[in-house]
Amino acid sequence: MKALLYTAPHTLIHTDAPEPVPGDGDLLIRVEAVGICGSDMHAYHGHDSRRPPPLILGHEAAGRIVAGPRAGERVTINPLVVDPACPYAREGRWHLSPTRQIISMPPRPGAFADYVTIPARNVVPIADTTPIEQAALAEPIAVSWHAVRVGMEALHLPLAAARVVVLGGGAIGLAAALVARHFGAADITVGETNALRRTTLTEGEGLAAYDPAMTGPAENSVDLVIDAVGAAGTRAAASHMVRPGGVIVHVGLLPGVDGLDVRKVTLQEITFRGVYCYTPQDFEQTVRAIEGRRLGALGWFAQRPLADGAKAFADIDAGRIAAAKIVLIPRQS
């Protein structure tokens, strides 16, 4: 099969690779669409020790089951593989299990390839009417779904009455704003430094957006802040704008711990929630929302052939992309 192989920092090659062999309980999936995640970019920069080269990256995937009684079924992939007997899994908190693995991290190759294997319990069927490229958005949107749900549950007022600010207009931030709108938020603003992405937010999705380098919400004025970047600057901005008794949800995964105003968090009883991935229920509900077109047109991604994946990574790195997401399409024979 063909695969996009990460071989060294800032180096990806489209090359031949062995076709994966399903283990017991696994399905072989023909990948038809796979998104580029921020964590893929982090690995591409050589900053993720969990993803050492050579490695096939990619975990935001959808496609068709290749063999067995379910052959031909269209599915999207929950890439988080967990032992169902783990106590965290039995509690419904699969994403916190110490047994967790994810495709695109050893020992599980990722989905920037013609084929990928995954346990049967990790696929969710999708309707024939749902474009396969949108089905590949289920994973990043599920991250945002989980983040908004956790933040909403921590608020001391209804989401419809809350002022919500999302920091970062990439896929996770944009999806968080769309999920918040779906859950009833009326006052939503997104901070994004990339002018091309701000256009996507405002003209494409009808969201309010601002350039954090130029302006921003006033101090103590925001009920719920979702930090979809997770950098020192966004943690500092979140600390500044959150109101007493408000909520910060930290979903970004950039390195570092600076920026958070722990004194304010303490004196003003700010709720700070770290969130990671999603539960199986979050993932399932996200898929059904996508199928029901309850999150908008979902036209905020661009498509590229998998063979052009190296250039797609370089374009994202250089800020030349207006879309919040690039979805790669493997060439199918």
Cα-to-Cα separation, first versus last residue: 10 Å
Number of structural domains: 2
* Main beta sheet strand tally, sense and closure: 7 strands, mixed
Radius of gyration: 19 Å
CATH fold-type name of the largest domain: Quinone Oxidoreductase, Chain A, domain 1
CATH class of the largest domain: Alpha Beta
What is the string of helix and strand elements? Answer: EEEHEEEEHEEEHHEHEHEEHEHEHEHE
Helix content: 25-40%
CATH superfamily of the largest domain: Medium-chain alcohol dehydrogenases, catalytic domain
Tally the helices. 10
Question: What is the general shape?
Answer: globular
What structural class should be given to the helix and strand makeup? alpha/beta
Low-confidence stretches: none
Mean pLDDT: 96
Multimer state: single chain
**What percentage of amino acids are in beta strands?**
25-35%
Q: Give the name of the CATH architecture of the largest domain.
A: Alpha-Beta Complex
Count of DSSP E strands?
A: 18
Walk me through this protein's architecture.
- With 333 residues, the protein is α/β, with parallel strands linked by helices.
- It has two domains: 2-137 and 298-329, Alpha-Beta Complex (Quinone Oxidoreductase, Chain A, domain 1), CATH 3.90.180.10; 141-274, 3-Layer(aba) Sandwich (Rossmann fold), CATH 3.40.50.
- The chain is built from ten helices and 18 strands.
- The chain has helices at 38-44, 87-90, 132-135, 138-154, 171-182, 195-205, 232-241, 262-267, 280-291, 309-317; strands at residues 2-8, 11-16, 26-35, 55-56, 60-65, 74-77, 80-81, 101-102, 115-119, 123-125, 163-167, 187-191, 208-210, 222-227, 242-250, 271-274, 301-305, 325-329.
- Strands 3, 5, 6, 9, 10, 17 and 18 form a seven-stranded mixed sheet that branches.
- α6 links the parallel β12 (187-191) and β13 (208-210).
- α4 (138-154) crosses α5 (171-182) and α4 packs across α9.
- It is globular, with a radius of gyration of 19 Å.
- It starts with a strand and ends with a strand.
- The mean pLDDT is 96.
